[in-house]
Design goal:
Length: 268
Amino acid sequence: MTDDPDKKLIELFNLGEQALIQKKYHEALRYGITAYEITQEKDRDGQGHLAMVHIFMACDRLLKDSTDKAVKQARKERADKLVCSFCDKKQSQVEKLIAGPNVFICNECVRLCIKIIDKETIIAGENPEALRWAEAAAAFARADYAAAAALYLPLAEKEDTEAQLWLGRCHAARKDHVEAMKWYRLSADEGNGAAHWEIGRMYKRGEGGLDKNDEEAWFRFRLAEKLGYRPADPDGYFAMHLSPDQMDAVVQRVKDWLYAYPLPPPEK
């Protein structure tokens, strides 16, 4: 680089502009600072202002770039937390994730439901219940909760705990939380971990005719975890809102419940 101050400034400004174009913002900032320091050696107000403009531009781009990266990372982390309730694939692993009331289904499972319906339609006379399950899942996936509820109801009335769970979810999606709680409880009483989780969410939010109760919500979430559904407190909410004595009391309640209703032996 030349020793002539004027030529050196021009060269620094050109290098700074190239660095900005190439998104090398740290380099652009360095060129801008160097140019500004040269302008301070002599009275070069105009060139000093230009150097400051380069510095501000580089800082602005750096801030925007870091913000964009932070936003992308946050979106990725959020996408990784959302999973399909049917296949457990993360949002980032599928083309689309459709949200329901505390439940999600991915485009791949929707396609599978459609295939099942197509297949079961042919053999409906042999297995009408299988067709009903497939049609109910498809109705829920397309957010037709009234139709899904009508299909799940006969299955739920036969004390099928999964049907009771999904019937509850249909009612929750339609904001009928009292009816949703009715079916969640029936399913939970037979040891369905997902149903306990849904009840826990309702206690946490104060839905379904319930008063908001973090301790009862924590009990349901812990029980769901023990029944193999999902982690009880992934975000640390209850650790911050319950006392150690309340946490210990819940642990004992879970032990008592599991003693009264022991888990079936694992399938071989």
